[in-house]
Design brief:
Layout lengths: L1 H19 L18 H28 L6 H64 L5 H6 L3 H7 L4 H65 L1 H32 L19 E4 L2 E3 L8 E3 L2 E3 L7 E3 L4 E9 L3 E7 L5 E10 L6 E2 L4 E5 L10 E7 L2 E3 L9 E2 L3
Parallel strand pairs: 1-13
Antiparallel strand pairs: 1-4, 2-3, 4-11, 5-10, 6-7, 6-9, 7-8, 8-10, 8-11, 11-12
Helix pairs in contact: 2-3, 3-6
The protein binds zinc ion.
The site of zinc ion (ZN) has 5 residues, from loops.
Length: 404
């Protein structure tokens, strides 16, 4: 009895479907959106990351060789600074990778939702057609239709009219295949994302480990400071090193000016070398180190509140005469503004100009940091005129006093 009823319904369906089939719009199975992010982008970043890792391992080797030698504290600190910069770059690259994976996953989820919506829509369309037939029709489909919980189940019940359903079934099958493909793709992407996230976590942990090592090196320096005799020795070393560099700066500046045919030298006209802060944490001139007989001559000003990320700009147009690093100044740049006139930028985490580069006033030349001798990130800025160091605050008058 039941079989007969289903059979009647099926025959009617067969007829009805043949009538309305021509009205059906074809379903598009093409991907809905082109991916904004590709695996190639990520691979490129991975390569970058590997290059950074190998640079870092070289620094680590050098560092390990020095580890137990207290006398090499300054050198050790400078290596740790280099390592921190490399690690920070690695973290930035990894974060970029993670962001790209997140974008890929979002795109994939959208594709998956789209496919599911298409399938649901197709089922709705089918039901609507059958209802339309019911309104017109001579045979009751309702019993058949409402016994099935889904299109799939109903197709199962009516499998003996599968030829009729063939076209629709094919669409549904295609949709299902697409859905599976998309789900598989998403699973792969989610795996990759988890991989990247764990890589990032490892890098972040490594970074904090390195920062700890740096703190340790800094506290070794402090220990040395507390030992007056040692510290006076270190200060004398630093002074001698600075004196030597200063002479070299003046010599280079004069040599360059001679090469350029001694164009007219102008004084003043400097702009702030950073735009993120005008807080001067240490002024120009003599300063007390807190240790008897161990005062030093501060050759420039320290600008604080710049972190490891402020862009450093040329304070005046000129030519780069030094772009280098040493254990006291860290990574530093000197720009010549005519014979005996220079500006110096120290403790950088990055330098983006090399010797001989002609820079405009306000041109980006590097990024702030804490390389060399100093506590925490700041920009040490010097001005030399006529071969003599002058107080930069004579020109940068709108500063914020942040020293005691
Ligand atoms: Zn300083």
């Amino acid at each position: 009895m039941k079989t007969r009823r289903i059979f009647r319904a099926a025959v009617a369906l067969l007829f009805a479907l043949c009538v309305v089939a021509a009205d059906l719009p074809p379903l598009s199975l093409a991907p809905q959106t082109a991916s904004a992010v590709t695996q190639a982008d990520i691979d490129k970043l991975k390569k970058e990351s590997n290059a950074l890792a190998s640079k870092k391992s070289n620094v680590t080797k050098e560092l390990n060789a020095l580890k137990k030698d207290k006398a090499n504290t300054l050198k050790r600190k400078s290596l740790l600074d280099q390592q921190i910069v490399l690690i920070s770059d690695e973290i930035a690259v990894t974060e970029q990778q993670i962001a790209q994976y997140e974008a890929l996953i979002e795109q994939t989820e959208n594709e998956l939702n789209e496919a599911q919506a298409q399938e649901a829509e197709q089922y709705q369309l089918f039901c609507k057609r059958v209802r339309a037939m019911e309104e017109r029709g001579t045979v009751s489909y309702w019993s058949v239709l409402f016994q099935a919980a889904s299109f799939e189940e109903m197709l199962g019940a009516l499998d003996f009219i599968s030829e009729v359903m063939e076209a629709d079934q094919r669409v549904i099958d295609d949709l299902r295949v697409l859905q599976e493909q998309i789900a598989a793709k998403q699973a792969t992407l989610e795996d990759s994302l988890a991989e990247q996230q764990s890589a990032k976590e490892q890098l972040a942990a490594k970074n904090s480990e390195l920062r700890d090592q740096r703190t340790e090196a800094t506290s070794l320096i402090k220990e040395m400071e507390e030992n007056e005799a040692d510290y006076r020795e270190v200060l004398a070393e630093i002074e001698a090193e600075e004196e030597k560099t200063q002479k070299e700066i003046v010599r280079l500046s004069k040599e360059l000016a001679a090469q350029q045919g001694n164009t007219k030298v102008t004084y003043g006209g400097y702009i702030w070398p950073v735009t993120t802060s005008k807080r001067v944490t240490s002024p120009f001139g003599r300063r007390n180190t807190g240790i008897k007989g161990a005062s030093t001559n501060h050759r420039g000003i320290d600008i604080g509140g710049v972190f490891y990320s402020s862009t450093v700009y040329a304070a005046k147009a000129g030519t780069v005469i030094i772009s280098s690093s040493n254990s006291v100044r860290g990574q530093y740049i000197v720009v010549s503004h005519g014979s005996g006139n220079t500006t110096t930028y120290q403790h950088l985490s990055k330098r983006s100009v090399s010797v001989g580069a002609v820079v405009k006033q306000g041109q980006a030349i590097g990024v702030t940091g804490s390389s060399g001798v100093g506590s925490g990130p700041h920009l040490h800025f010097e001005i030399t005129e006529n071969g003599q160091l002058v107080d930069p605050l004579k020109y940068l008058t709108d500063y914020v006093k942040a020293w005691r």
